[in-house]
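Record type: monomer structure entry
Structure origin: computed from sequence
Chain ID: A
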Amino acid sequence: MSPLRPRVGIVTDSTADIPAHILQSKQIELIPALVMMDGETFIDGVDLSRLEFYRRMPSLTHPPTTASPSPIVFQDSYERLFKQGVEQILSIHVSSHLSGIVNAAFQAAQQFGKRVNVFDSQQLSLGLGYQVIEAANAAAEGLKLEAILDHVRSIREKVRILALIDSLEYLRRSGRVNWLKAGFSELLKIKLLLTVKDGFVESFGQARTFTRALQQLRVEAASWAPLSHLTVMHSGIADVANSLAEDLHSLSSSPPMIVDVTTVIGVHVGPGSIGIAGLPQF
């Protein structure tokens, strides 16, 4: 086995929103989800740029949809890692309450017995991404699988995520947030703040304007400090994200990342949304 390849391989899916340079430097295997739009199927992050996706989204006749990669895709990925010399695999994915990706990974893992372990992050975007990055760091340090799992469980308990949804129409169409349907007509006039807890999307707060909701994001981020890592995620509003990252940079010991969220998440939150993910110091 190559000394450059950790004994435990780390796999995740594209909803983790981990920048490409981090995936490469930390040897994280990425499995892309799928987006269906205008009768075509696109591989997330490969066939369709995020800029083009958000440009086209408001004018679509039918809303785009998403799908999990097949178990065969996971199986091929696991086999490739074993051929490269890894001894065990930890496959960490988006919350099972929000996607079928974990189930597809579980099905593929059955072919490998105890050599492949599938872990439900109970999160999405960088709430998932931080768990994956920390797992990769632990694997690079030579920790055994059980120690890596213990570390990731600790990260899962600590990570925080909060999103400001500009238009609730996309989230309503997705059907992933059941409680949103009941009071949707009343919610049309407000900006909603959402968080993820125990794998479910929950309401965190609301405001009459985007500006006031953005201020609530700032206040909540300050309550998380001190942070070891902070990310600002957005769906096609880079200027707002850059400004928010500048406002929050003092809360984290490392410079904030800015991520334009993957198209699979963009299908559900729509253009113009923004969020924050933080990992408190420990």
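Annotation 1: The mean pLDDT is 91.
Annotation 2: The CA atoms of residues 162 and 188 lie 19 Å apart.
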